[in-house]
């Protein structure tokens, strides 16, 4: 008697994929950043997180002063700084928790 099993690969929802949540992961230079020694990565991560905070404050100030183009620029700077900081952080290789874990 032959039993056939259907094996279905569990593919996470698009919004749960790491490269969708953090598009920086698709850039080739990410491998070079991750290859840096841990001390250098930690310093760079601290600087990027500081840059992110400053950019967010500038975005908020520009929004309050009714300058949306500058607010958008600084908001984007903050987002990119945060994404890069997470890519090189100590838990950079961890998987994103998702609903498909089971």
Q: If you had to describe this structure to a student in words, what would you say it looks like?
A:
The protein is mostly helical and 102 residues long. The chain contains 4 helices and no strands. α3 packs antiparallel against α4 (68-88). The longest helix is centred in the middle third of the chain and has 27 residues, at 38-64. The two termini are 31 Å apart. Mean pLDDT is 85; it is low at 94-102.
Write down how many β-strands occur, each being a DSSP E stretch of 2 or more residues: 0
Portion of residues in helices?
Answer: 55-70%
Strand content: under 5%
**In terms of structural class, how would the helical and strand content be classed?**
mainly alpha
Q: What is the averaged pLDDT score?
A: 85
The gross shape turns out to be: flat
Distance between the termini: 31 Å
Write the layout of secondary structure elements.
Blueprint: H1 18-21, H2 29-34, H3 38-64, H4 68-88
Fill in the keyword field for this structure.
single chain; mainly alpha; flat
Concise summary:
This protein is mainly α and 102 residues long. It has helices at 18-21, 29-34, 38-64, 68-88. The protein has four helices and no strands.
